Amino acid sequence: MQTAKRSSKLNCFYKTLLCFGIYLVIADIIMLWIVIKPVAPSFQLNSVTVSSLNTTADGELTATFDVAVNLLNPNADLTASCESLELTVWFGHLAITSGTVGRFWIGPNSEVPVRTRFGVDRKLFPRGMVNGVAEQKARGYVDFRVTLLARVRFWWHHIVHTRVRSFTFECYPLNVVFPIDDNNSGTGSFVTPYEL
């Protein structure tokens, strides 16, 4: 009889403990959605270097793009996981090439530098676009456009997370300067930070 009473009291204690634990998890989730609203990350384009930029009369374009970006998570209590970051370089309305950075983490109130390199090798484009690149390069600059597509999820204590949110940012005009001289190797750069 004593054993049955003790077992019943123990079961009641465990059930109460389980209910209290579930209550705490629910309270944490409500706090995340009501009190702690995630603020969108901010991006800063630090530099774009274009090397081996070459065009042909047949409409072929060759170029390598080295892009450096800083991502800032302004949230004091939330960690951000950038599920993917896609950078695309455009000339006019035509995408030239793009590069993707895999998943990385950004701590609360912190900034993470990201650098990626991607390119295009003798890719055929409309001649008007290729001629436009060549004409601008001959003048000492090329106006590219860079878009960033970030897929971000916010985490609270690595337990509760939001759904993946997509953020798109655009930098235009991105004036990449090419030195005008006889030894121009096709390398130009943009080094002034561009706040997004």
From TrEMBL:
Organism: Flemingia macrophylla
Major subcellular site: membrane
Name under which the protein is recorded: Late embryogenesis abundant protein LEA-2 subgroup domain-containing protein
Cellular-component GO terms for this entry: membrane
Keywords, comma-separated and alphabetical: Membrane, Transmembrane, Transmembrane helix
Listed transmembrane segments: 12-36
Keyword Transmembrane: yes
Location(s), subcellular: Membrane
